[in-house]
Write a structure and sequence with these properties.
The structure holds two protein chains of two kinds. Helices cover 9% and strands 65% of the residues of chain A. A ten-stranded antiparallel barrel of chain A has the order 1-2-3-4-5-6-7-8-9-10. Chain A is mostly beta strands. About 7% of the residues of chain A have low confidence. Chain B is 6% helix and 46% strand. In chain B, the strands form three sheets. Chain B has an eight-stranded mixed beta sheet, with no helix packed on it. In chain B, strand 14 and strand 15 form a beta hairpin. The model of chain B has no long low-confidence stretch (mean pLDDT 89). The chains are: A mainly beta, B mainly beta. At the A-B interface, strand 1 and strand 2 of A face loops of B.
């Protein structure tokens, strides 16, 4: 009897959560605090860090990257949506010249507000596929989980700031790879400029140690929606 | 342009130029499995020295982070002292003589140690020279050691072209005729001159430090060298 009550209670709770997340009101584009974001951008970056040589030697290296990126963050329901990102580019290191990434996530909008500065916070969980990062690992394409967060601030109708953070942990056979990606942008009407930085951490080797690569470079983009 | 802006541009230019990419050549950044230990030992009959250079994928490194090299010679364990050779770090020990094989230890704080690597050294020997008077050839003799490695003999002097011989087998003796000591075509006038005779016995080895791949390796070159002066009147 008690188990039956527990089952009914759990089902009712899950139903209530689903109703809240998929509430009847989709985010409207005209809403100043809406959370949808469609964008295209170009991004260039300089990279520098330590790669592994041999069994476990830290060797400095550097390079550059240039990408075209397109992202869609859409909320068919008030609190629940999706976030997809694709990028294609070149990476200038001895190990790699070509880079492709596709990522998708289920997105939640736990906070949105109106006031002197409208804004919203989006969180997402998903996955992606891309060529190996950092490139010196040289293992070709790999899949990975993805955690994302984005803060959008709209101080005026035509001015938009957003900062997005993406975390992609990978556990290959011979170590642990983490990528932390932070983008901060500010824009007017449909255009925006920003700075994007990334840290790729790889823990592996004999002795096991951290191999870190820093990326930093400008971003210029266009908000489509 | 403001000073802060100029400084910013300068720092950015340095960053983009890749400054700081020259590797910091310290052992902390190198796995023992990637190390290439190069051991050179020399006993010239007067004094002896053991030198060790540590190569790696990022170049020759100095020992840091508590890493240390030791040699055990004739039962005495000695720490190796860091120095420079041609701008590269080298670790050395000065000795009176090399009486025989010695042991090398590499101790590391955060990585694998290498213990008890045996560096083979041929037996010390005494060199003697006779002859080279009137028509007699130069007769050299020393204590033979058939297991003592490669033997090479060289004779140098202002009045001759340098002469070098290698022996397939260490017989402990070599005879050099006066006809082999040819004066250089444009050399000084014929007169009594000093020659320096050098006999060298060297054992070289190359071994892996570990059975893994990569496993690092160690190359050794241990030389017993003796010199003697003789006077020759061509």
């Amino acid at each position: 009897m008690q188990e039956r009550r527990r089952f009914i209670g759990g089902a009712a709770g899950a139903l209530a959560l689903a109703c809240i997340l998929t509430g009847p009101l989709p985010a409207r584009a005209g809403d100043p605090s809406h959370v949808a974001l469609w964008r295209m951008e170009v991004h260039g970056a300089y990279l520098q860090g330590d790669q592994r040589l041999g069994a476990g030697t830290l060797a400095p290296y550097n390079g550059w990257g240039l990408w075209a990126r397109a992202g869609i963050s859409e909320f068919p329901w008030k609190w629940l949506g999706y976030d997809v990102l694709g990028q294609i580019g070149l990476v200038g290191t001895p190990q790699s010249k070509f880079d492709v990434v596709a990522e998708g996530a289920v997105a939640f909008a736990p906070a949105r507000w109106k006031g002197s500065v409208d804004g919203s916070i989006v969180l997402g969980v998903g996955g992606g596929f891309g060529f190996e990062r950092p490139v010196w690992l040289g293992r070709g394409g790999t899949g990975y989980p993805l955690l994302l967060a984005r803060l959008t601030l709209l101080p005026k109708k035509k001015i938009r700031f957003f900062a997005s953070f993406r975390f992609t942990p990978i556990t290959p056979d011979d170590g642990w790879v983490r990528s932390y990606d932070l983008e901060v942008t500010g824009g007017y009407q449909w255009w925006y400029l920003g700075l994007r930085g990334r840290i790729d951490d790889v823990t592996q080797g004999d002795p096991e140690r951290l191999y870190r690569t820093y990326w930093l470079g400008p971003t210029a983009g266009l908000v489509l929606r | 342009m403001s000073r802060a802006l100029r400084t910013g541009f300068f720092l950015l230019a340095i960053l983009l130029a890749g400054c700081g990419l020259d590797p910091v050549r310290v052992s902390d950044r190198v796995s023992t499995r990637d190390m290439l230990l190069g051991v050179t030992a020399l006993d010239d009959g007067v004094a002896a020295a053991i030198d060790v250079q540590i190569g790696s994928p990022i170049g020759t490194v100095e020992l840091t982070g508590g890493d240390a090299l030791f040699v055990t010679v004739d039962g005495t364990r000695l720490p190796m002292i860091e120095g420079q050779s041609n701008g590269a770090p080298i670790h050395s020990v000065k000795l009176d003589a090399l009486p025989g094989d010695f042991l090398l230890d590499l101790e590391r704080q955060n990585d694998r140690d290498v213990h008890g690597v045996v560096v083979e050294v041929s037996r010390p020997f005494t060199l003697a020279a006779e002859g080279l008077t009137q028509d007699l050839p130069l007769s050299l003799s020393w204590d033979a050691d058939p297991e003592g490695g490669e033997v090479s003999i060289s004779v140098q002097g202002d009045c001759i072209d340098a002469l070098t011989r290698s022996l397939d087998e260490d017989t402990g003796a070599l005879v050099i005729t006066q006809a082999e000591l040819r004066p250089p075509p444009a050399g000084p006038p014929l007169a009594p001159c000093a020659l320096e005779v050098l006999v060298s016995r060297t054992i070289t080895t190359r071994d892996a430090l570990f059975s893994t791949n990569p496993g690092g390796n160690i190359t050794t070159s241990a030389e017993q060298r003796r010199t003697i002066a003789v006077i020759w009147t061509p």
